[in-house]
Amino acid sequence: MQLYSEHYVSQKTERFVNKIWRLDNSIGESLIENKLVLPNGCFNLAIVSGNAIEVHTSKNKYEMNEGIYFCSQMTNKVLVHIQPKTKVTIIQLHAWTLSMFPKYDLSNFTDSIIKINSDELPFKIEIQSEIQTLLNTINFYFEELANSNQNIIEKICKIIRVDEDEISVSEIGKLLNSSQRLLQIKFKTATGLTIKKYIQILKFRKSVDQMLNADLEKMSLTEIALYNKYFDQSHFIRKFKDVTKTTPKMFNPDSYFLSQKR
User: Fold this and answer.
1) Rounded CA gap, 146 and 126, in Å?
2) pTM of the full structure
3) How confident is the model at residue 262 (pLDDT cuts 50, 70, 90)?
């Protein structure tokens, strides 16, 4: 049985959905404990079938029995325990995707999880859906939106993702011909994060990916730190510890669910 698997949406749907991933302990007889997930700047829709999972964020502990859950932006590592006979499917949504539905105010919603009803979603999801059925549903819905214009949140995120340096909010404001204050308010409402925090999360994840591939890329910890615009190695280690509660040298990737697509 493969506990962790990744599944990719169509090219058009990638504008809004990063990927779908699954944690499958459905035929397991024992509890899978102490697995970790790192923040990556995405929202998640979690579909739990079978028994339950227990999730610890920096704010709370959540017992997630069978159902559908909306997971906010995470700013620290998340601890997961998966009960036997349980399967969890995660639809990973880009930071700007929720801004397509402006009725949601997420200003104060980070490191949190809420249970939702299926009829609250704009597309129909069955708890027991097979991956291919779910992919078809997600592709069908989001491909319809793919021709829509970018809103301000998507534009902010795209500027941050394209820029190789750590761009400032002031520079983003100039590029979008908008005040910093207005951008900050709109971004916080749509994502729960400040623009600066979003930049920090993306920078952190990029650093982790490079660190895991350091043998291939021949990059030292100092080089990774400087490449990602940390002041120095000490600054990188301090920020790394803020999220993971451990140092880069003590980091054990086998304890984490990390993307297979690096």
Assistant:
1) 24
2) 0.92
3) very low
